[in-house]
Amino acid sequence: MTIKEAQERVDAWIKEYGVRYFSELTNMAVLTEEVGELARVMSRRYGEQSWKACDPRAADNGLEALKEEMADVLWVLICLANQTGVDLTEALRKSIEKKTVRDEARHKNNPKLHKL
Predict the structure, then answer these.
(1) Does residue 101 lie in a domain region?
(2) 3-state class of 20 per DSSP?
(3) DSSP letter, residue 22
(4) pLDDT tens, per residue, the chain with 116 residues
(5) Is residue 64, in this structure, part of any structural domain at all?
(6) Could you give the number of structural domains in the chain?
């Protein structure tokens, strides 16, 4: 699925099942909440925090939870893009171009990145 197709599918879903988009501010709050949920999974899977014994997401060390939370973040980001008229394909293309020009040698010349 392309980014454009994802934007179209989310929009179609909202129109069929969601009644309407939440307001932009509500979706911004939801995005923040979803990023927090992703952070919780990341801190347990890759960081120093441990899973609670009663947490069913611990079974596969949070791999399915990681996928779910990343998808939730993407969903809400797509909703915000749709609401605000942002073409995420074009926005991402421009972002890659900007970073390529700006950081062409920056990371290659950063000795901190060459340490293991």
Answers:
(1) no
(2) coil
(3) P
(4) 999 999 999 999 999 999 999 999 999 999 999 999 999 999 999 999 999 989 999 989 999 999 999 999 999 999 999 999 999 999 999 999 999 999 988 998 899 998 87
(5) yes
(6) 1
